[in-house]
Amino acid sequence: MFNNLSEKLDKALHVLKGHGSITEVNVAETLKEVRRALLDADVNFKIAKDFTVRVKEKALGQNVLTTLQPGQLMVKIVKDELTELMGGDAEGLNLSGNPSVILMSGLQGSGKTTFSGKLANYLKTKKTKKPLLVACDVYRPAAVDQLHVVGEQIGVEVYSDKGNTDPVAIAQAGIAHAKANGFNVVIIDTAGRLAVDEVMMTEISNIHKAIQPQETLFVVDSMTGQDAVNTAKAFNDVLNFDGVILTKLDGDTRGGAAITIKSVVNKPIKFIGTGEKMEAIDVFYPSRMADRILGMGDVVSLVERAQEQYDEVEARKLQKKIAKNQFGFDDFLKQIQQIKKMGNMKDLIGMIPGAGKMMKDVDIDDDAFKGIEAIIYSMTPAERSNPSLINASRKKRIGKGSGTSVQEVNQLLKQFNQMSKMMKMMQGGKGKAMMQAMKG
Ligand code: GDP
Questions:
Q1: Which of 72, 82, 274, 352 sits at 20 to 30 Å (Cα–Cα) from 24?
Q2: What is the pTM of this model?
C-alpha cells in the first residue's frame, strides 16, 4: 500500500537527519521533496502546496519548543497533518433506523457490489446485525447474479426482481421485504456506469429521495487517483453522501485519492477495501493510515486482526498439545489457515513497523503457503500426527503427491522439527511467562 509515496516521504524527511535544528533553508529543501512526493502520488496541486505551507509554519514555530530531533519533529508534524487531511477521527456508520437503510453509489467497476457483500458480512459478523442485500441494477442482469453469488458466499439473503425495470420500486420493495422479515439493515446496490452521466445521476438521486437512507455511501476505486476525487465531487453534488469507501487499496495505489478526497468533498472515508475476498474490509482510521504512509506500520490493526482470528478454546487445546509434544502437521495447517484469514500477506507485513520498507522488493504473494499446504495434504493422517514416521520412501511419495521435491519435503520437516522444539522450550521456565505476557 502506498509504497512509492512512503519511500519518497522517507527520503525527504531523511534530509533533516543530522541537522541540529530546523532552519528556513533545510525545511524548504525537505518540503520541496515532500511536495514532490505528494504530487507523484497524485495529490492535487493546491492540496499538496497548502499541506507543505502548514507543515512549514508548524515546523518553524515548534522548533524551539521541543526536545525532539529535527527529523523526528518533522515526521510528527507531517504525520499529524496527514491525519488531519484524511479526516481526523474515524467515523462509523449510522445504523439508527429499523431497518437502517444503506445506499451504495459509484461508477461501474468501482467495487460497489463487492463492497456491498463485504459490508453485509462485516455487519453480520462484527455487529451481529441481520442484513439484507438488495440488487437494484436494472440494466445488467449479470450484476444482479453477481450479488446473488456474493450473498450465497456470506450467507446473506439477496432481494431482487429481475423483470422489474424501476430501480426505485425495487429498492422500496426490498425495504418492505426487510421489514416484513426481520432484517435490521438493508444494503442497496445500485447501477453504475463507466463515467459520470445524467441518467445515472438522476436515477440514483430518485432512489435516494424515495427511500431516504440513513447512510449513503460513495464507492470509489482508489487506483483512479485524481479521477476518483472528481467523481466523488460529482456524486456529492447530487447526493450529499455521508461517507466514502475507497476500494482496491491493496494494489499499487499511489495514494492520492486517500489523501485528497476528504478535503475536497468534506466527507469522511469510512471503510477501505483491501482485496477481492469478503474479509478484505477495514474501518478507515486516518491516524493509522498516516502511520502506514510514513512507514511506521500499523501495529494496532495487526493486533486487532490477530484477535479477530484468535479462538480461546482452540488456543488452549493447542497449548495442551504442545505441552504433551503432540503438535502435528494438522495443527500446523490450522495455524496457516488462521494466518491466511487475517488478510493478504503483503498487507500484513506492511503493518509491521519498518518491515514494509525492508521487504518492499521481496515478492510475497498469497500463494506463499501453497507448497507447504500441498506437502501436508499429501501426508497420511498418521504421518501428520506423527511426523517421525516419515522415512525416505514416504518422503518420495509425499514429494510426488504434492508436486514438490524430496528436498522441499525435507526442508519443511526440518523447519517443523525446529518449531516444535522451540514451542516445547517456550512451555517451560521463561517461555511460560512470555506466553502469559503475550496473552495479556
Ligand atoms: P461494481 O461494478 O461497482 O459493482 O464493481 P465490482 O464489485 O463488480 O468490482 C469490480 C472488480 O473489482 C471486481 O473484479 C472485484 O473483484 C474487484 N474489486 C472490488 N473491490 C476490490 C478491492 O478492494 N481490491 C481488489 N484488488 N479488487 C477489488
A1: 82
A2: 0.75
What are the two backbone dihedrals, phi and then psi, of residue 150, each rounded to the nearest 5 degrees? -60, -45
From 40, 60, 86, give the residue that closes a domain.
Answer: 86
Check: CB of residue 135 under 8 Å from CB of residue 112.
no
Distance between start and end Cα atoms, the chain: 30
The strand ranges marked E within 9-162 are 100-106, 131-135, 158-159
Q: Does the CB atom of residue 204 touch ligand 1 within 6 A?
A: no
Report pLDDT digits (tens) over 173-207. Answer: 999 999 999 999 999 999 887 777 888 899 999 99
**Helix or strand holding residue 173 (H, E):** helix 167-180
Ligand 1 probe mutation, 114, 118, 269, 276, most atoms within 8 A of CB: 114
Grid cell locating 238: 447530487
Kindly give the pairing relationship between strand 243-247 and strand 215-221: parallel
Nearest residue CA, atom 19 of ligand 1? 111
Q: Which domain holds residue 258?
A: 100-290
113 lines ligand 1 (CB under 6 A): yes
**Residue 116 near residue 215 (C-beta atoms within 8 A):** no
Q: State the closest ligand 1 atom to the C-alpha of 247, by its place in the atom list counted from 1.
A: 23
Angle among Cα 162, 166, 140 to the nearest 5 degrees reads 50
pLDDT tens digit string along 302-335? Answer: 777 777 777 777 777 877 777 777 888 888 888 8
ipTM over 0.90: yes
Residue 82 lies in a domain: yes
d(CA 196, CA 227): 11
- Pick out the residues of the known binding site for GTP: 106-113, 189-193, 247-250
Pocket lining: 248 vs ligand 1, CB cutoff 6 Å: yes
Q: Using CA atoms, how far apart are residues 280 and 150, in angstroms rounded to an integer?
A: 13
The CATH code of the domain that includes 429 is 1.10.260.30
According to DSSP, the residues that pair with 215 across neighbouring strands are 102
Same domain flag for 104 and 213? yes
Between the CA of 221 and the centroid of ligand 1 the distance, in Å, is 8
220, 247 Cβ separation under 8 angstroms: yes
Total residues belonging to the chain: 440
